[in-house]
Design goal:
Butyryl-CoA Dehydrogenase, subunit A, domain 2, four-stranded mixed beta sheet, four-stranded antiparallel beta sheet, single chain, binds flavin-adenine dinucleotide, 3 domains
């Protein structure tokens, strides 16, 4: 049995919900249209302790785990999933598990307040669902590494101060902490994505970028280990954002349908629509339980690869289904960009790709279910 929320988790949920309603909801559409990071609200999220939610308490954070991260993502995404900078929390998770004491002392206090934003850079023109073709390189150059590489689809690359950068070193795949203010880092272009637009996407290049050994995370060749140490955690965040989108869409559709009169009745007085509501709420509840199980397992130190992949898969399917039905339920009102549903739809679809596609989730699930050799 997964235990109930603790009083501090309930209070976190309440405070994030209030914050999202007060600061994110009113501006979400504007920043989606502009496609820029909402700095003022980001700063406020730092002040509220949300950016340092998962930073260990001894380094200035709130010491939250996967369950707290899930609460944060879900409540923020009810208003807009683009306000969750997954690369930031992924970097914190990697450093918590694989960083040196010196790295924690240097980065955590800054990441906790939001003074520095962190991003994750894995994808390349030939690297998406598989790391095999990773072309970025790190070669030893005296006491330093010399990094070269071209990264694509990177959220917040221009806004972030630190990027965890995956490259092939002599000993194999390795992660490095790149400071975007150092020479050799250059943004190539800003992209124009379909969704999550308040967390902008860039392509960037590292050319002749020198970095001291102390900025390497883990040992040379431990890149996959570093990646997997944070990946389940990060997927739980994706799943929670998808769940938050579904909850936000359902809530707003119901609020509209409750008052919209069609002849003698309101939309929610039609039995078909009430059944629709019942089905959506049931699907959300089921997905939520699976996500809770994955988050709880992660916090217990258990391997949550199966459950977190299942949670992302199910939350994605439920999210897309609920948003589509929310549009149907709200009729013409739901078809306009003034309504939030098409933004929810674009964000949900983007989350079906970002952080690992649904097909990759299915591969992970099947690999865990089938005996070796059958996969
Ligand atoms: C909004 C957004 C934000 C992103 N942010 C970041 C970021 O901050 N940092 C970062 O590094 N990357 C980021 N990405 C990139 C993202 O991680 C990749 O897009 C994703 O891993 C898929 O890679 P790909 O796009 O190259 O698809 P491909 O790998 O080319 O896959 C294409 C299709 O084939 C399917 N496929 C691939 N391999 C298999 C297989 N073995 N079995 C079955 N089907 C398969 C995929 O599921 C997909 O449907 C982001 C992407 C998006 C859309």
């Amino acid at each position: 049995m997964i235990p109930d929320m603790t009083p501090s988790q309930s209070s976190l949920k309440e405070s994030v919900r209030t914050f999202a309603r007060e600061w994110i909801e009113p501006e979400a559409r504007e920043y989606d249209e502009k496609g820029v990071l909402p700095y003022e609200t980001f700063r406020r999220m730092g002040e509220a302790g949300f950016l340092g939610l998962t930073v260990p308490a001894q380094y200035g954070g709130r010491g939250g785990g996967a369950q707290e991260y899930a609460i944060l993502c879900e409540e923020v995404a009810r208003a807009s999933a683009a306000y969750i900078h997954n690369g930031h929390y992924q970097t914190v998770a990697m450093l918590t598990r694989q960083g040196t004491e010196a790295q924690k002392l240097e980065f955590f206090p800054r990441l906790a307040t939001g003074e520095w934003l962190a991003a994750t850079a894995i994808s390349e023109p030939e690297v998406g669902s598989s790391f095999k073709q990773m072309a970025s390189t790190a070669r030893k150059d005296g006491p330093n590494y010399l990094l070269e590489g071209y990264k694509v689809h990177i959220n917040d690359a221009a806004e972030a101060r630190v990027i965890n950068f995956f490259a092939r070193a002599p000993g194999g795949l390795t992660v490095f902490l790149v400071d975007t203010r150092e020479p050799g880092f250059k943004i190539v272009q800003k992209m124009d994505p379909m969704g999550l637009r308040a967390s902008p996407i860039y392509e960037f290049v590292l050319q002749g970028y020198r970095l001291p050994e102390k900025r390497r995370v883990g040992a040379e060749g431990q890149g996959l280990e570093v990646f997997f140490s944070a990946f389940n955690f990060s997927r739980i965040g994706n799943a929670s954002c998808l769940l938050g989108i579904a909850r936000g869409a359902l809530e707003k559709a119901v609020a509209y349908a409750r008052t919209r009169r069609v002849g003698e009745k309101t939309v929610l007085e039609f039995q078909g629509n009430r059944w629709n509501l019942a089905e959506m709420a049931t699907q959300i509840e089921g997905a939520s339980l699976l996500r809770d199980k994955a988050a709880w397992m992660e916090d217990q130190g258990k391997n949550s690869a199966l459950e977190s992949s299942m949670a992302k898969l199910l939350c994605a399917e439920v999210s897309e289904m609920v948003v589509m039905r929310a549009i149907q339920l709200t009729g013409s009102y739901g078809c306009y960009r003034q309504a939030p549903f098409e933004r929810y739809l674009r964000d949900a679809k983007s989350l079906c790709i970002a952080g690992g596609t649904l097909e990759v989730m299915k591969n992970t699930i099947a690999a865990r279910l089938l005996p070796e050799g059958e996969v």
